[in-house]
Write a structure and sequence with these properties.
heterodimer; A: alpha+beta; five-stranded mixed sheet; 8 helices; 5 strands; 11% strand; B: 22 helices; 24 strands; 35% helix
Amino acid sequence: MEGSRKGAVDMLAGADLSLGLPGGDGAKLDFVRTGCKRGFSATEVDLKLDLNAKESPSSVEKVKPADPARPPAKAQVVGWPPVRSYRKNVMAHNNKNSSDEDQAAEKGVASGAAAALSFVKVSMDGAPYLRKIDLKMYKTYKELSDALGKMFGSFTAGNYEAHQGMIDFMNENKLKGLLNSSDYVSTYEDKDGDWMLVGDVPWEMFIASCKRLRIMKGSEAIGLAPRAMEKCKGRG
Amino acid sequence: MSEEDGDHHSSEATSTNSLSGSHPPDQVLETVLESVLQFLTCRRDRNAASLVCRSWHRAEAFTRSELFIGNCYSVSPARAFARFSKVRSIYIKGRPRFADFNLMPHNWGAHFRPWVSAMARAYPWLEKVYLKRISLTNDDLALLADSFHQFKELELVFCEGFGTRGLSKVAYNCRQLRVLDLSDTEVTDDNVDWISCFPEDETCLESLVFDCMENDINFDALERLVARSPLLKKLRLNRYASMRQLYQLLLRAPQLTHLGTGSFGLIENVQNMDDNQECNYYSSAFAACTSLVCLSGFKDVMPVYLPSIHPVCANLTSLNFSYTNINPQQFRSVIVHCHKLQTLWILDSVCDEGLQAASETCKDLRELRVFPVDADEDIEGPVSEVGLQAISEGCRKLQSILYFCQRMTNEAVIAMSRNCPDLLVFRLCIMGRRQPDSVTGKPMDEGFGAIVKNCQKLTRLAVSGLLTDKAFWYIGQYGKLVRTLSVAFAGDSDMGLRYVLEGCPRLQKLEIRDSPFGDAALHAGAHRYYNMRFLWMSSCRVSRQGCEEIARSMPRLVVELVRYDGEEGSFMEGDSNSFTVLYLYRSLEPPRNDAPESVTIL
């Protein structure tokens, strides 16, 4: 499930569920379909359960809000709000690519103008297009890793689970494991023009010196590791 | 609409001929009439003219070149084409609008086949076809391409059922094609390079729109096509066009007036420039397009590139950012240049702040649409009554608004009704169902009441939020010019619907969902249904019996009951008498025979 479905997932995590699927006994759940004809990221089925109300067999949703100013969470119905599925699909696809930039913006980055100045280009071997990201929007390598995973996830041939481990450069052991495999490895070009492995230096030092990011195939990154080690020793 | 006129007149003509020689007076009159009537373009005027008398009816039918079919099932092709013999353009509308929101099965109907087959025989000189919410196949397009040798314009809006193979036939065979516009239309990928199928010599293309297509195209072929289309004014690319490709096309076609930029965010893996250099690079191409007035696309925008459109902003009359998830600051940096803007479509990501910025600059704004990034009900929304109020104060010439929001107040809506009296279209979608005024907690009756009362030219209204029958009383009382009304989760009782059916004489299209209106209200409107295009009621309180009674008492009305729960291929629970949608419409024909299983026609 993509980032835009976070709300539903959070609710599910906290609820005590026995799912009564359509046609089964018990409660009938109302589903929201966002029209899968275009083959976008998986069928978007959003379960929002109103655990207090008794569901009736009809699809008409009945709600009696106790406090008119704040209605409780409702089970979703078909076709509401009236946004066409093409539009919903495009937005879901865009959210996959750019939600991180927006979330970071909401965290209080001063202004668009300031943010634009620190963009670095990110390319991935084999992907036809590159992206630009603002390193100042992330606070840790993990956040960066997640963001890159979302941006380039669609370009990897593997399945979704594989992509989670794709850009995991936190752990040196894992790095070596990655280097030995055909997985992808993140590298960056620093101020000196050298290509280094991402994750070697403290985050602040990284964003100060990173000029460009490149996600390359693990097999090609083998030669980098020794140089990275040397540089680190040099910095003490 | 009697078909017997023709025979009667010819016998009259013969008898007069034998008396007075070669120019009988009523034939002269008819010839003069035809020469005059051919200048009449508005179809309502033409309809009125055709009712004057038989000879006017005949002359009008003979001179009508644009045929508009508002509901493809209200009349058969045979009947329509028998009356109008000289048609050059045809507009056909199919599915009702609420079908867009997954409330009807995909195979419900509205097929192009019977129309195109009949047209192929009746109008070999046909030049233009415009279809909205129609299903058409590759074979239909092939037939079209083969049958009409002077074919010039094809526009498909909200259509589906065909693929790139059908497009390639049109591109290849229609040598005089000027317009090929696909808007919000699904096109399947048949693995055919349709762009390469256009003829190799100079084309007459003026408009090529395919921004909704979800498949890649042969860019080199497109570039060559644009290069040999000197008359091209409108070009809307799809999401797969990169920045570099867009740049190259702009260099080839600086004469464009309408441009769809595709994603405006895909960058090839080769650039060596920094951000400023890149923006300057692209903006030089935009600066050369001095005729550009309409910009759209930006479907996966890289906000850093937005400054490159600044050179054209001052000339823009239309800007579509409705797929463009940008923040208020990014939006402001663009909108401050757009003084001439008349049409603006945006996402609510620009927030009330962005709307404020638009209201300060776009003093000529006529149409505004604000779409939601998140079409969910229970979230904090970025736009509210504050944005609406700001727009109403800054954009006094506003004629049309569609506004999605999570919170709204009567005060803001009333303010808009006073500040923008020229409103023709007011569509407010408060996304939380039955949500009251977010400040006072009261129903939204007064707000919508003020709209119908103060905006006296209003023809289209969509309501939402918590509404009692009072709101409908206002609409019936004041909404005398309203033609289209959309209602969802509103009203208390049958009286609500009765007020509208009894009070709005111009009502043509009424679409209602999930509202407590039942058989009594349905019957109260019987006197209206022959004068309306359709009535849609889904998940309301009408019963099968009530619908059967209407169907019995009104033979020229087609009453369809649809059982559909939003899931394709599933059968609804409940007895076979239950249904979700009542869709009724007037028709000159017996009920259609192409309906799927989920549809029962009474």
